[in-house]
Fold DNA-directed RNA polymerase.
Amino acid sequence: MPWKIDCYELYLVFRYLLQKNLKLPIGGRGWVIDVRWIQKRGGSSYNPEMIHVYISQKREIKVGDKVAGRHGNKGIISKILPKQDMPYLQDGRSVDMVFNPLGVPSRMNVEQIFECSLGLAGSLLDRHYRIAPFDERYEQEASRKLVFSELYEAIFEPEYPGKSRIFDGRTGNPFEQPVIIGKPYILKLIHQVDDKIHGRSSGHYALVTQQPLRGRAKQGGQRVGEMNYALVTQQIGSGVLQEMLTYKSDHIRSRQEVLGTTIIGGTIPNPEDAPESFRLLVRELRSLALELNHFLVSEKNFQINRKEA
């Protein structure tokens, strides 16, 4: 007896498989450390087995990566120096990271300084501290008194209490002002510069707005916001801005003319009509029973010609 296959059921299975597959992100690399075959129990008959592939990736920290502490003191790495060029203490030990002090008053999180100083005192005294939140219910300024007492026992210098003299690793000269040195808890965040770099030459466009898709995973374009608009207008010029808002965005006719000019040759004509985003705005206003007409003034005889959106 021949085996009959229902085409619709086969279509459902293939559609499920096409929708549920998971690809490695663009630019992803690493070592496969584990592969697991998981089979679902019960449910619909269109739930096949799942295969989980675990990939391990090692990345060295670089300029542009984001780090943060436990008190909202986040920032990006602006420069990486050799160990011999980093500032060093009086005993010759070099520091690992240098933070901008302007990050303290702007965020008003003084506890990062307490953690930094208390971590250094704990390493020198070989002690561990556990500070609970809202410990002022036991005593007024309990955290501050604990930190100050431990600092007084570990590294008390009457001339500049809580700070240390450090030297420039490039010249060997001491810095003009004493600096707070400590051991805070710093984490490397998932926001890394390797995942932020993205470029687009050509790709898909949205059906409604006719603008490039959003997102790095979809090979989308980069959004030009208000700050970017002001920067391009001030520093680069209006020609680049017009190119971003027409040829590279939602001006359908200009995109076609760029393609034809690239193949045949010649100069790219300037766009004369409105982009698709303006037409979309006009259509939305028409759905609200509001008519919007725009006119084009000719450069030759200054005649007003009506342009339909």
